[in-house]
């Protein structure tokens, strides 16, 4: 009897108690797309996307804040943050002004931004409640705990050489 040839792809796709069956990144991206669609559908009525609401809420909570600190708090790189700030500043909801010295800047919520954030809280809460009703409060609570634990275990930034374990 001949031994079957090892197939690395088959090994990857075979679920075991210690190995996930599918790509974690793909699964999380699919979940995030569904969650974004869920929240965006509710926030659309006030003219915001989920990413915009999150940015306004974070600046409202932390601001005035340096862009580098805001990017770190949100887990974004500087160019993504800059790109996401532009439409909010153009709408008059945020300002990016000079900071304490000539080299620094501060991101702040404007009065119009505070009003927009207040207006958006109602549909955001509706989205939160609808999600808890669909998934169950226990599942949402467990998901939050798993996300928090995972974020604490993963580095905020990959090593410069790009090397990582599989």
Structure report:
- The chain has 166 residues and is mainly α.
- The chain has a single domain (24-152), classed as Orthogonal Bundle (Arc Repressor Mutant, subunit A), CATH 1.10.10.
- Helix content is 61%, strand content 6%.
- Strands 1-2 form a two-stranded antiparallel ribbon.
- α2 packs across α6, α4 crosses α5 and α6 (111-135) packs across α7 (137-153).
- The chain is globular.
- The two termini are 33 Å apart.
- The model has no long low-confidence stretch (mean pLDDT 87).
**Low confidence ranges:** none
Q: Architecture, CATH level 2?
A: Orthogonal Bundle
Average pLDDT taken over every residue: 87
Helical fraction equals: 55-70%
Largest sheet: 2 strands, antiparallel
Assess the beta-strand content as a share of residues. 5-15%
Per CATH, the class reads Mainly Alpha
CATH topology: Arc Repressor Mutant, subunit A
* Radius of gyration from CA coordinates: 21 Å
* Strand adjacency order, main sheet: 1-2
What pattern of helices and strands is seen along the backbone? HHHHHEEHH
CATH superfamily: Winged helix-like DNA-binding domain superfamily/Winged helix DNA-binding domain
Number of structural units classed as domains: 1
Strands, total number: 2
Q: What structural category do the secondary elements indicate?
A: mainly alpha
Give the end-to-end Cα distance, rounded to a whole number of Å: 33 Å
Based on CA inertia axes, which overall geometry fits? globular
Number of DSSP helices?
Answer: 7
């Amino acid at each position: 009897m001949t031994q079957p040839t090892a197939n690395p792809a088959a090994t990857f796709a075979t679920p075991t108690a210690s190995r996930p069956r599918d790509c974690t990144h793909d699964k999380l991206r699919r979940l995030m797309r569904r969650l974004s669609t869920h929240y965006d559908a509710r926030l659309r009525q006030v003219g915001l996307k989920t990413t915009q609401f999150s940015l306004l809420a974070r600046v409202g909570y932390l601001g005035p804040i340096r862009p580098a600190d805001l990017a770190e708090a949100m887990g974004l790189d500087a160019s993504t943050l800059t790109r996401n700030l532009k439409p909010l500043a153009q709408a008059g909801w945020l300002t990016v002004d000079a900071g304490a010295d000539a080299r620094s800047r501060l991101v702040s919520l404007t009065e119009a931004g505070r009003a927009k954030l207040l207006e958006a809280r109602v549909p955001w809460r509706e989205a939160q409640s609808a999600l808890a009703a669909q998934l169950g409060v226990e599942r949402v609570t467990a998901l939050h705990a798993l996300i928090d634990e995972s974020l604490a275990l993963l580095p905020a930034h990959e090593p410069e050489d790009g090397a990582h374990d599989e």
